[in-house]
Write a structure and sequence with these properties.
Largest sheet of chain C: 3 strands, antiparallel
Order of helices and strands of chain A: HEEHEEEEHEH
Largest sheet of chain A: 5 strands, mixed
Number of domains of chain C: 2
Distance between the termini of chain C: 21 Å
Number of strands of chain C: 8
CATH architecture of the largest domain in chain C: Orthogonal Bundle
Oligomer: heterotrimer
Mean pLDDT of chain C: 87
Shape of chain A: elongated
Strand content of chain C: 5-15%
Mean pLDDT of chain A: 86
CATH class of the largest domain in chain C: Mainly Alpha
Low-confidence stretches of chain C: none
Helix content of chain C: 40-55%
Order of helices and strands of chain C: HHEEEHHHHHEEHHHHHHHHEEEHHHH
Strand content of chain A: 15-25%
CATH class of chain A: Alpha Beta
Distance between the termini of chain A: 65 Å
Chains: A alpha/beta, B alpha/beta, C mainly alpha
CATH topology of the largest domain in chain C: Cytochrome-c3 Hydrogenase, chain B
CATH topology of chain A: Beta Polymerase, domain 2
Strand order of the largest sheet of chain A: 1-2-5-4-3
Largest interface: A-C, 41 and 45 residues
Helix content of chain A: 25-40%
Shape of chain C: globular
Strand order of the largest sheet of chain C: 1-2-3
CATH architecture of chain A: 2-Layer Sandwich
Number of strands of chain A: 7
Radius of gyration of chain A: 21 Å
Low-confidence stretches of chain A: none
Radius of gyration of chain C: 23 Å
Chain lengths: 171, 160, 409
């Protein structure tokens, strides 16, 4: 592992009780959700990880503890070019976490998308609205208990049944 | 036979009103600029110089629905976009036709999920479906020519 | 069909200035169907006369639910959907997906496949920049440029059709290498292309670079600084047009890019003109890379030998029992990938394109996150358009080079 990365990871482990996990030469740190904003701020100010490349979430339903992981991907934009991932575990059906917008303004739309797709609310966000789905959509599509919503294949045996339900334009 | 030999040298031809009206409708159908996704790029290729669509009188793509008579729905129609498509269709004056270009407009193509309309014919009546993902510009031109043939067979009462 | 819901001003109050509620400024809807928005993008412009006070982008009109749909398909079937995300960079999307799957599965890729992948990725980059040049020229009223760019693009599409059968959505790059070897005419077709292309690029530059009208419409419009770019996560030609030379192909090289010698073009100013210059220079550098890759193209297989992930050739099916079993397993269940998550990034014509694929050990991905650069780049629209005229908004959208398929997924 790169020396600067090693320094940053060790500092995170000491100060924020992070747990490191190395998979295929990529480092990810598991940090508690109430401390992850401070950890990102420290990484940006002290160690030079100044770009938030991506922020996303993963749903582990039916496992409930934790159900979601929010993943932050940080990059250094000056040599040595490094990549670091932070993971914050969340549980429950209406999970809340503080917003990263104050540290990286980039997180504005990224967190709106996570709210739209997963239902994770970000406290302190300036504009928490749906971004990809229509304004009045109910449900959070990327959760594992949300159905895919596909159209059934119309075979001969269920032709009439599906035909009745099919929507046709009035004109 | 007598009438043709008498009038042939004078430069007169006889036909029905229906045929003339349909012929004139096909010869300069103005499409509305309605490219949604990847099929729009192939539609642009069909408009460009290699597969010229202005041979059919269609090089003028009108952005306003009030000035166009053909809506080529090129690309996937999501549920958020559905009211917009319907509103645009309603704004077009008669006579109007719709070509569903590509697999996603015909039947939602590769994507069978919550976010897309399963075929744009759920909300607007479609005249010609062009298959392909994306259809080649030649396939689109074949679809346009088929639409012309369909229009030639229409009766005057349809849009009266 | 959902009805049209009226969004009251109170919901958007926090986004527009107080003058809007008074009626001093006007809220104009540059709707999803518009000739210059390059797809279905909706912009809410708050205008004071002709000057833009604030601009609120509204996206999601092309949301296709690809991330959820990929979770329901096996790894091979999910790749077909990646072509259609950023539809101007289909082979680049395939490449990214395959790099991520290969990293998860620790699959090797033979050097011939890597070299051909580089050639195809650079051809796709030129193809995307040609469409960008044509359509943003069309927006700024340089209409003949559109026809010239499309003419060159047909040559690239002919090459794609020759290797795979499809003009745009080829799905030619597959995990482990390529689908099949390139035909014999590939090399001569690509060499012909790189022979004529530099003159054509000179032609485009002659039309625009010193054109007073173009310079008036683009210099000093839509300016952004490097610090703002980094704060907002902008990468790609927009970042390089502010002066910072950051390119994924140099920072974290993939697929053999470290062997090729090319420059990362930058320009000062951060305005529309700078982005135009950067992209035109990128086309020239792409031609350089293609020439080097073609000169050094090694011989050998084009797909990995690992039968657990790559189907065996059909000639073997009649003679070997293991091949038959591998074929059967790959076609019914698909290959399984070890548990874990990887984040891979490549340089697309729009910026840093990245994906995070997490697998749970089964044949279907657990989570595929597709990070499209257009999503992040569109966030700066309010910043770029503040204080400019409505007519400049069109030029600015063109210069950011968004593709809504990438943005909405």
């Amino acid at each position: 592992m790169d020396e600067k990365l090693e320094q940053a990871v060790t500092a995170m482990e000491e100060r924020f009780a992070a747990r490191r996990d190395i998979f295929r030469d990529q480092v990810s740190l598991m940090i508690a959700p109430d401390r992850v904003i401070e950890a990102a701020r420290t990484l940006r100010d002290e160690f030079g990880f100044n770009m938030l490349s991506d922020e996303t979430a993963v749903d582990y339903w039916p496992q409930e503890e934790p159900r979601f992981h929010v993943i932050y991907v940080l990059r250094r934009m000056q040599p040595p070019y490094l990549l670091l991932m932070l993971r914050a575990p969340l549980n429950g059906n209406a999970p809340r976490i503080a917003t990263m917008e104050k540290v990286f303004p980039n997180a504005n739309w990224l967190e709106r998308e996570i709210w739209d797709m997963f239902g994770i609310y970000f406290d302190g966000h300036s504009d928490m609205r749906r971004i990809l789905m229509p304004y009045d959509w109910e449900g959070h599509p990327l959760r594992k208990d949300y159905p895919l919503g596909y159209e059934e294949v119309q075979f001969t045996f269920n032709f009439d049944e599906i035909d009745k339900r099919k929507s046709r334009p009035k004109e | 036979m007598g009438l043709e030999t008498k009038t042939g040298e004078m430069g007169i031809l006889t036909t029905t009103l229906e045929k003339v009206v349909n012929w004139s409708r096909t010869n300069s159908m103005w499409p509305m600029l309605f490219g949604l996704a990847c099929c729009a790029i192939e539609m642009m290729s069909a408009q460009a110089s290699n597969y010229d669509m202005s041979r059919f009188g269609m090089e003028l793509m009108r952005a306003s629905p009030r000035q166009s008579d053909l809506m080529i729905v090129a690309g996937r129609a999501s549920r958020k976009m559905a009211p917009v498509i319907r509103q645009l269709y309603d704004q077009m004056p008669y006579p109007k036709w719709v070509i569903a270009m590509g697999d996603c407009a015909s039947t939602s193509g590769v994507f069978n999920n919550y976010a897309l309309l399963q075929g744009v014919d759920e909300i607007v009546p479609v005249d010609v479906y062009v298959a392909g993902c994306p259809p080649r510009p030649e396939a689109l031109i074949h679809g346009v020519v088929s639409l012309h043939e369909k229009v030639r067979r229409e009766s005057l009462k349809k849009w009266a | 069909m959902t009805e049209i819901r009226e969004v009251s001003v109170s919901e958007l109050q926090h986004l527009v200035s107080e003058r809007a509620a008074m009626g001093e400024t006007m809220l104009l809807n540059m709707g999803p169907q518009h000739p210059s928005t390059h797809g279905v993008l909706r912009l809410l412009l708050e205008l004071d006369g002709e000057i833009v006070v604030n601009c609120i982008p509204d996206i999601g009109f092309l949301h296709t639910g690809v991330e959820k749909n990929m979770e329901a398909k096996t790894y091979q079937k999910a790749e077909v959907m990646t072509d259609r995300l950023d539809y101007l960079n289909p082979l680049g999307n395939n490449l990214l997906y395959c790099l991520a799957v290969e990293k998860l599965a620790e699959l090797d890729v033979p050097p011939r496949a890597q070299a051909i992948r580089v050639i195809l990725a650079e051809l796709t980059r030129i193809n995307s920049h040609l469409v960008w040049l044509g359509t943003s020229g069309l927006d700024l009223a340089a209409m003949s440029l559109f026809l010239y760019c499309m003419r060159e693009r047909e040559k690239i599409l002919d090459i794609f059709e020759m290797i795979s059968g499809a003009r745009m959505m080829t799905t030619y790059i597959r995990p482990g290498g390529l689908w099949r070897d390139v035909p014999a005419e590939f090399e001569s077709a690509v060499r012909d292309f790189i022979k004529i292309m530099p003159d054509k690029i000179d032609e485009y530059e002659a039309l625009l670079s010193n054109n007073e009208l173009f310079i008036d419409r683009t210099k000093g419009i839509g300016v952004i600084s490097t610090e703002d770019c980094i704060r907002y996560g902008i990468t790609g030609p927009i970042l390089r047009a502010t002066g910072m030379a950051y390119d994924m192909r140099k920072v974290a090289p993939y697929s053999g890019y470290e062997q090729y010698d090319f420059d990362v073009p930058t320009y000062q100013g951060g305005d529309i003109y700078a982005r135009y210059k950067v992209r035109v220079e990128e086309m020239r550098q792409s031609l350089r890379i293609i020439e080097q890759a073609l000169d050094r193209l090694p011989y050998g297989p084009v797909r990995s030998n690992n039968r657990k992930f790559v189907p065996p050739p059909r000639s073997e099916l009649g003679v070997s029992m293991e091949s038959l079993i591998h074929h059967f397993k790959l076609w019914t269940e698909g290959f399984s990938v070890p548990k874990g998550g990887v984040y891979v990034a490549v340089e697309s014509p729009r910026g840093e394109l990245a994906t995070y694929i997490e697998s749970d050990g089964g044949p279907k991905p657990w989570r595929v996150r597709w990070h499209g650069p257009s999503f992040v780049n569109l966030q700066i629209m309010p910043l770029l358009t503040k204080g400019h005229f409505v007519a400049d908004v069109v030029g600015i959208i063109g210069s950011i080079d968004i593709v809504l398929g990438d943005c909405d997924r």
